User: Fold this.
Amino acid sequence: MNNKNNLERVASVSAPSIFNTAKELRVIFEMLALASFRSRLDSIKCGDGHPVVVAPSFMTGDGGTAALRTFLRRSGFAAYGWEQGRNTGLREQVYLNFERHIKDLAARYGKKVSVVGWSLGGVYARTAANKNPDHIRQVITLGSPIHIPDMSGVTGPVLKLYEMLNPGAMTDPMLEWGDCWRDTPKVPSTAIYSEGDGIVDWNLCVDKDLAAHTENLRVPGSHVGLTHNLAVMYAVAERLAQREGHWRPFDLSGLRGRVYGRTPAIA
Assistant:
């Protein structure tokens, strides 16, 4: 498919409602809650020391995931940024450098690497998981538009913004790799999303074809605050803490069922 057509399909997805977009201001309260419960979070010690790489959202860098990575390190994981600067869009060379970073960590630790991707960072994370299942332990996405190339619609304001902020993106080979992030990962996978997401339509953020080792996990909150959200942080740590080869879906019994939810495969 032509790269321009591919991006036009990405850009024409139905936008979240104005109400949901306005609710992105919830990020302020999410950050305040994080500060208030910092000591409680710091008491969570569940990690086994395996390496975890966190990829940031569009137009942010490792600074945007610092709070989540700090929490993961304090919980007992070897958390790293993606170390590729600002995420300006889908770029083949950036992906190849990101992939090399993952493989270097796997070699250094002698263990598979878990990858967490926030928003567009999840597209990079899923691509890495499907291209390198022998190096990746599991993948977790946070509000990531993993089905963007499948959509169609009528307008393209997002395309214009993408082109303006990301010159040269229209001809980048990575835009032809849609199956690498759309396809159900070959490794354990959790797609975390919020139905109140004011940036990305949540329907784009869930796996359409679930396997025994994949799940869609609903959380309350904003899109911008996904890396500062208490419910997200707890779920990410709980998912990462599972022993390799013993993955199970997130347990929704008891109080968890009042905070989290699960979405089945969507046609």
Summary: The CA atoms of residues 137 and 213 lie 12 Å apart. The longest strand covers residues 136-142. The radius of gyration is 17 Å.
